[in-house]
Amino acid sequence: MSRRTPQPPRAWQRMLSGRRLDLLDPSPIDIELEDIAHGLARVARWNGQTHGEYIFSVAQHSLLVESVAQDMAGELTRAERLGILLHDAPEYVIGDMISPFKAVIGDVYKEVEARLLAAIRLHFGLPAKPARAIASLTKRADGAAACHEAVRLAGFAPEEAERFFGQPRNLGTRSDSLLQPMPIEAAQAAFHERVESLQKT
Asked: How many CB atoms lie within 10 A of CB 101?
């Protein structure tokens, strides 16, 4: 009796759109906005350890970061804002791991995340990597958003949040309103609509 050859472990995820996304070699062809919006609206920031009736989703966090970046920079192109909005888009597949756990895992997570983000950006007509200035702006806006989320939603003391995420900045009216957790369906629709609006010429 012959033995079966062991099959390699599955490294792809089937999406509700029917797409099959390979995590090791993701293709822009297998990226769909509907899948991203659906997934990000159901992934909780802070491992779900936030106040409020609803989770604070990665979809809503992404909207907040794009808004904070706009507050910081003033003038940004649609493509630049779209790139910022999509900065955490790989998490629709791999989830939102808290920073301490990312530090434990090391570079493997970062490599998978980077490949996914490149495929996502290419799908939406963006360069695989953002310009250095936009990457820096995204990081600063992400930190500012995280600082406010930590205090308003995740139970951090202001001094503690500032130590981990940097000195907070005052938020504009739109950014401040995005700190109120939304129902899943609302976050999904808001993210989907924002991506579509930024794709329009």
From this structure: 10
> Is the Cβ–Cβ distance between 48 and 181 less than 8 Å?
no
pLDDT in tens, 126-157: 999 999 999 999 999 999 999 999 999 999 99
Rounded CA separation 159/179 (Å)? 19
For 57-109, the pLDDT digits (tens) are 999 999 999 999 999 998 899 999 999 999 999 999 988 776 767 677 767 77
User: Domain ranges in the chain?
Assistant: 31-199
Bridge partners, 22 (sequence order): 12
CATH code, residues 31-199: 1.10.3210.10
The conformation of residue 17, written as its DSSP 8-state character, comes to: T
Q: Using a pLDDT cut of 70, give the percent of the chain over it.
A: 92
pLDDT of residue 96: 76
- Nearest C-alpha neighbor of 93 from the set 12, 18, 25: 12
Q: Could you give the C-alpha distances from 134 to 33, 88, 128, 186, in angstroms and in order?
A: 22, 14, 13, 28
Residue partners of 187: CB distance under 8 A and separation at least 6: 40, 41, 57, 59, 60, 63
Please say whether the dihedral angle defined by the alpha carbons of residues 35, 126, 81 and 45, taken in this order, is positive or negative: positive
